[in-house]
Design goal:
Elements (H helix, E strand, L loop, with lengths): L1 H5 L1 H18 L4 H17 L9 H9 L4 H27 L22 H19 L1 H5 L3 E7 L2 E6 L5 E3 L6
Antiparallel strand pairs: 1-2, 2-3
């Protein structure tokens, strides 16, 4: 889900340190850590197919072929699922000996302690819901302002609904 909403690079950058910290807390040795770290990157990449905004290639392809958001998502659910399952199968095939069969759950902290501020957590969900609602309104797709904005590789890529050209912040245009 993280890869679908935050793009594959963002998901890999967000999930890899989280996974690394969890396997360190569980006191796995380096050989036992590697399958989990590799899986976070591979699965982030494999599951970035479903939504147009998940990947720069998705944005360019959908724009070039004039494919709408929902139409793209509906047609990419099955390839995304197949990609996920194939990645999981290959990772398991390659790392099956290194994946621990047991772990000590007492090493993990209480999940309620993970949030430093409950109010901020709830407020962020309200804010994200409002952002989702605002971008889903039809007026966003008929205005002259960018209908999607994706930050990838330190570049800002905008797709304008009236002007279908993509442009990148440093002046290079597609």
């Amino acid at each position: 889900m993280v890869a679908a909403f935050f793009a594959n690079d963002g998901a890999a950058f967000i999930l890899t340190p989280i996974v690394l910290e969890k396997v360190r807390v569980l006191k796995f040795d380096t050989q036992r850590m590697l399958p989990f770290i590799m899986a976070s990157g591979f699965i982030a990449d494999a599951t970035s197919l479903t939504l147009i905004v998940s990947n720069l290639v998705n944005i360019v392809s959908a724009d070039f072929f004039h494919i709408g958001f929902l139409n793209y998502a509906v047609h990419m659910i099955i390839p995304d699922l197949v990609s996920f399952l194939a990645s999981m199968f290959m990772l398991y095939l390659f790392f099956w000996r290194d994946i621990p069969t047991v772990y000590e759950p007492s090493y993990l902290s209480n999940p309620r302690e993970a949030l430093a501020h409950q109010g901020m957590f709830r407020a962020s969900w309200v804010f994200l819901s409002l952002c989702w609602w605002a971008t889903s309104q039809r007026s966003c797709f008929t205005s002259r302002y960018p209908s999607s904005l994706v930050i990838t590789n330190n570049k800002v890529v905008c797709r304008r609904s009236l002007n279908t050209r993509l442009f990148i912040e440093d002046g290079f245009s597609i």
